[in-house]
Amino acid sequence: MIQDTDTLIQHANEVHNAANVDTVYDMDWFIDKGVEWGTSLLLGIAVLIIGMFLAKRITRVVSKMLTKKDFDESLQKFLVSLVSISLRILVVMTALSQLGVEMTSFVALIGAAGLAIGMAFSGTLGNFAGGIMILIFRPYKVGDYILAQGEEGMVSEIQIFNTIILTLDNKTIIVPNGAMANGNITNFTMQDLRRVDFVVGIGYGDDYKKAKTVLERFIAEDDKILKDPASFIGLGELADSSVNITLRVWGKTEDYWDIYFKMNEKIYTEFDKEGLNIPYPQMDVHVHNN
Fold first, then answer.
1. Segment 53-98, tens digit of pLDDT
2. Do both 226 and 163 map to the same domain?
3. Exposed, middle or buried by CB within 10 Å (0-12, 13-18, 19+), for 215?
4. Would 280 be classed as within a structural domain?
5. Count of domains for the chain
6. Which residues contact 231 (CB under 8 A, 6 or more apart)?
7. pTM more than 0.70
8. What is the pLDDT of residue 21?
9. What is the extent of the structural domain holding 202?
10. Is 64 part of a structural domain of the chain?
């Protein structure tokens, strides 16, 4: 009986000692994990704070660089916002990864969602990309007079998705930027100087040298016509009913239409006084009596 009691006491002591050992092991595990998680948490917070600070500084630097490069104001705001949002997302993802959050599945999910959205809005995204290209490379700017996609007029606004064109008769035309970025564009006002071309017809038998002298006088009298580059006058064509003189003069882009209309008016009103005829197509009809 005494032996059985001693056996029970010994067994109880063994169980008690094993429990104490397990408790010690559990405490060590909790301490190790606490230190590990605490370190990760502190590192994640540090990454978040420092990363947000750096993102803010980088965004300011980008904004100043775009301002110095004289980028379009709409493009500046868009690019600065894009850089700021991208950097902040990167900082948050980096901080979460420090906490042991698995980012692979998260990134894959974002990529799949982006692909689905891109396929659904392919046309809109094409216009968006076209708007970015236009704002970066600037084939035209607000106030330019252009011909693009069969439409001609002054650019009144460049939006992210569309370009707004105002015609000479005050019609508003909205053209998608995707088509604008991928098509031909004629910009009439990008250069400081423009050449104004005329074809001046005189009658057969008229004095060509006199006509040339009169045109030279017209050029000299117009102070908006530049001396450099030099003007050109030459015999361009012996047409069916007229001798066509080619006249080319240069002026500032903003003076183009003033030069054009004034020269046409002078030719019409002064040629007759100088004994020069402006011919027009004629038809001779012969009637034969049987």
1. 888 888 888 888 877 776 666 667 767 777 888 888 888 888 777 7
2. no
3. buried
4. no
5. 3
6. 219, 225, 247, 248, 249, 250
7. no
8. 47
9. 193-270
10. yes
